[in-house]
Design a protein that fits this description.
The protein is an alpha/beta fold and 112 residues long. 22% of the residues lie in helices and 14% in strands. The chain is built from three helices and five strands.
Length: 112
């Protein structure tokens, strides 16, 4: 269903604060730590949730390290979400860049 190819990417430090972030990680990864305001849709649910995504603005797709999100960006672009962009390095680079994170478990936000 998903295949990896060369897709547009953006560095964590270059993502505008008001960007639409789509987090495609699994539930446990999301609970541990994610960007505030991100939409959580696990990778395998993307085909059924295409209608939840905007088509009139950039959609920055994020996973842990950038591999799964690159596959999702390729899939999105093939399915009409032309403005989808991979977050280079995923949440690991997001955290390393000092970008804001929150957790759902009450603990300090972290990337797992």
């Amino acid at each position: 269903m998903f295949r990896r190819s060369s897709v547009p990417a953006v560095a964590a430090g270059d993502v505008p604060d008001e960007a639409f972030l789509l987090d495609v990680r699994e539930d446990d990864e999301w609970v541990a730590g994610h960007a505030p305001g991100a939409l959580h849709v696990p990778m395998m649910e993307i085909p059924a949730r295409l209608g939840d995504l905007p088509t009139d603005r950039d959609v920055i797709v994020v996973c842990r390290a950038g591999g799964r999100s690159a596959q999702v960006v390729a899939f999105l672009q093939q399915n009409g979400v032309d403005r989808s962009i991979n977050l280079d390095g995923g949440m690991q680079s997001w955290a390393a860049a000092g970008r804001a994170m929150v957790s759902e478990d009450g603990g300090a936000p972290r990337v797992v």
